[in-house]
Amino acid sequence: MTECGFTGRTAQTKRRRMQFIKSGILLSVAFGLSMVAQSVSAQQAGEDALWQTRCAGPSRSAEALACETSESVRMKDSGQLVFKVDLIFPANKATPVLRIQAPLGFYLPGKIKLGVDGTPLSELEIGTCDQRGCFLSTEATPEMIATMKAGGALQIDFAPAADRRQTIEMPLTGFSRAVDAVQ
Asked: Closest Cα partner for 166 from 102, 113, 109, 101?
């Protein structure tokens, strides 16, 4: 057997192994998302620990600060991020934005549907995806913010596969306090 033939087979074997590993990772993500509704949790803590706030800007003047309030849903066992919801208040009192970070590996054409306490709120399409996940955003209208402030839970309805939908609930505990703090 020649050295070149051996090297060619080794490269081919390595490519096959990498394809197998990539397939395994994608299957793991898909399987993990199918189990999400059964094993996720938002932070289970007091009101002050839910819906964190933060502000940043070039100066401390209220007009120059961009502020946000956010909450995450993570897998109970691994702590892996499943969904992150940010309500962003841009500087200069620009229109607020609701942004969601979703994991890679769910059925993209299925969109994500939001509701509060069972009442439909919005339907979002994927904006962009990168190695951290997929990002969706929409204008956060005053009505949307008021509905979330008055509600008990935000429902995030998504499709882990083309033929199936799942809903995850994110507590809105502390949301009203957080929004009031950054507005």
From this structure: 113
